[in-house]
Design goal:
The chain is of the alpha+beta class. It has eleven helices and ten strands. The protein is elongated.
Length: 283
């Protein structure tokens, strides 16, 4: 077995050198922290999150969602998704079987969560008046306890006739006795109110489902964030320190302070006032 040693001309003695695996845990932890400090970038992770959200909806309209996070293992930390998610984005991504939204199972889960007649109402709402689910953040913490999420339905009260048109179009697309009975109400005001209440009920149920999906996505990105900022593979760490040691072979050793050295060759290294020579000693 060949044991690597370093000779310090200043100290006048040999010191052991270690492979990465042989280093004390506290030294490896310090090397890991240094590696993460140098190789992890908040802007890169933010862009990754934004791209992940955009990819979910494929070629659908820009959904206007943003990401905020604080990942320091402190009280109130987490990752949130906030902004406006448009109804036509949801409908288009759900109908597109090639979208990431569909591939990850959100489209099928959404369709399974509601009757076909309700999905017809959702599509007709998108065609007639559109809609927005608003994810609002308030407070100082980046977690879902500081979020308010709701469907912006104010316009339905202002355009009651649109609700009747939505229900009529949905019934034309997929006839149901319940929708037909609603449209058969003789009193105009009562018919309009019944249609408004029904459409809002459908949209609120849709919103609850979408909120659960967006929160699931945020939880996934939060875990990816903790992994990105605090975890690293040993192979990546060793490769990084091989580069720092200007190793041509990737075979490196460390002193007890975690400083890397090429292990194959005898090397003269200068570090401040100290001069080291790395040699192989046979035992």
């Amino acid at each position: 077995m060949r044991i690597q040693k370093r000779y310090s001309f200043d100290a006048g003695e040999f010191e052991y050198l270690y492979s990465y695996e042989e280093l004390p845990d506290e030294t490896k932890d310090e090397l890991r922290r240094n590696y993460l400090d140098i190789n992890r970038d908040a802007e890169f992770f933010t862009e990754y999150c934004q791209d992940y959200i955009k990819d979910l909806f494929g070629h659908a309209a820009d959904q206007g969602l943003k990401v905020g996070y604080s990942l320091n293992y402190c009280q109130g930390d987490g990752l949130i998704i906030y902004g406006d998610l448009y109804l036509n984005t949801i409908v288009a991504a759900t109908k597109d079987s090639n979208s990431e939204w569909a591939r990850k199972g959100y489209a099928s889960a959404l369709l399974d969560s509601m009757p076909l007649a309700d999905w017809a109402v959702v599509k007709q709402t998108d065609l007639h008046v559109g809609g927005i689910i608003r994810f609002k953040h308030s407070g100082r913490y980046a977690n879902w306890g500081c979020m308010t999420c709701e469907y912006d339905s104010d316009y339905l009260y202002d355009t009651e006739a649109s609700a009747v048109e939505i229900v009529q179009s949905a019934n034309n697309e997929l006839y149901t006795e319940a929708l037909d009975d609603m449209l058969s109400i003789s009193d105009d005001d009562e018919r309009e109110l019944a249609c408004v209440n029904y459409v809002i009920k459908v949209l609120e149920a849709l919103t609850d489902e979408i909120i659960s999906y967006i929160k699931e996505i945020a939880d996934h990105l939060e875990q990816r964030g903790y992994d990105y900022f605090y975890e690293a593979e040993d192979a990546d760490i060793k490769e990084f320190y091989s580069w720092q040691a200007e190793s041509e072979t990737g075979n490196i050793v460390f002193d007890n302070k975690g400083r890397p050295f090429e292990s194959k060759y005898n090397i003269i290294c200068f570090n401040g006032t100290e001069m080291y020579k790395t040699i192989a000693a046979a035992f």
